[in-house]
């Protein structure tokens, strides 16, 4: 099953002009706990999907109270610069949305 079908929300947005934030939220507590207990969203995965160095990943946090995961990483180019193709950062969740989740 793809993450976009497993989670309730998988979205991205700017976190200022130099960072992207991805939010992954779950309505179902069991689904969130499955993701957390199996550490499915981790720095190594983010590095691979977004071709980043570890130092470019600024935050990766599991928020129990919100049943969500937040990932923040450096943008390759700043928002609104001449080479920017996604000024709002709204299309950056796509690699995670397509992630296949292997259910036990």
Key structural traits:
104 residues, alpha+beta, 26% strand, single chain, 4 helices
Question: What is shown here, in short?
Answer:
With 104 residues, this protein is an alpha+beta fold.
Treating each run of at least 4 consecutive H or I residues as one helix, how many helices?
4
Strand % is 25-35%
Structural class: alpha+beta
Number of discrete domains: 1
The H-and-E topology, N to C, reads as HEEHHEEH
Radius of gyration: 14 Å
Overall pLDDT? 96
Spatial strand sequence of the major β-sheet: 1-2-4-3
The coarse silhouette is elongated
Q: Which sheet architecture does the biggest sheet show?
A: 4 strands, antiparallel
| Poorly predicted runs of 5 or more residues | none
Q: Report how far apart the termini are.
A: 11 Å
The count of β-strands is 4
Describe what you observe in this structure:
β3 (57-63) and β4 form a beta hairpin. The longest helix has 9 residues, at 29-37. It is elongated, with a radius of gyration of 14 Å. Helix content is 24%, strand content 26%. It has helices spanning 3-6, 29-37, 43-50, 94-97, and strands spanning 9-14, 19-25, 57-63, 68-74. With 104 residues, the protein is an alpha+beta fold. It has one domain (3-79, 86-97). The protein is built from 4 helices and 4 strands, in the order αββααββα. Strands 1-2-4-3 form a 4-stranded antiparallel β-sheet.
């Amino acid at each position: 099953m793809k993450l976009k079908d497993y989670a309730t929300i998988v979205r991205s947005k700017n976190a200022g002009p130099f960072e992207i934030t991805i939010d992954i939220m779950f309505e179902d507590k069991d689904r969130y706990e499955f993701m957390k207990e199996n550490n499915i969203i981790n720095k190594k995965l983010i590095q691979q999907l977004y071709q980043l160095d570890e130092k470019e990943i600024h935050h990766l946090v599991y928020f129990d109270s919100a049943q969500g995961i937040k990932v923040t990483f450096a943008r390759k180019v700043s928002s609104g610069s001449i080479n920017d193709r996604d000024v709002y950062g709204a299309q950056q969740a796509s690699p995670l949305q397509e992630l296949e989740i292997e259910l036990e």
